[in-house]
């Protein structure tokens, strides 16, 4: 209930910017360097594409919003 209130009635004194975190995975191959006795990165390959996160946050502190909730939040903030 508290989260719903924050989504629909944002603090108008705060700045609002919708943001999210996502991850792109890479496959990394290593080669052994006997002179340094270490593994050195030999090559990288991106294995998936950048995708939008399922849950979004606002810079004002509201977290875990769906896309529709984030849109409602930013509209209510007048941003």
Give a brief description.
With 79 residues, this protein is α+β, with helices and mostly antiparallel strands. The chain has helices at residues 2-8, 67-76, and strands at 18-19, 26-33, 38-46, 57-58.
Report on the architecture of this protein.
- This protein has about 80 residues and is of the alpha+beta class.
- About 20% of the residues lie in helices and about 25% in strands.
- The chain has helices at about 1-10, 65-75; strands at about 20, 25-35, 40-45, 55-60.
- It has a two-stranded antiparallel ribbon with strand order 1-4. It has a two-stranded antiparallel ribbon with strand order 2-3.
- The mean pLDDT is about 90.
Provide the residue-averaged pLDDT.
90
Radius of gyration: 21 Å
Query: How far is the N terminus from the C terminus?
Result: 23 Å
Give the biggest beta sheet: 2 strands, antiparallel
Number of helices: 2
Strand content: 25-35%
Helix/strand class: alpha+beta
Give the total of beta strands: 4
Strand order of the largest sheet: 1-4
Order of helices and strands: HEEEEH
Contiguous low-pLDDT stretches (5 residues minimum) are none
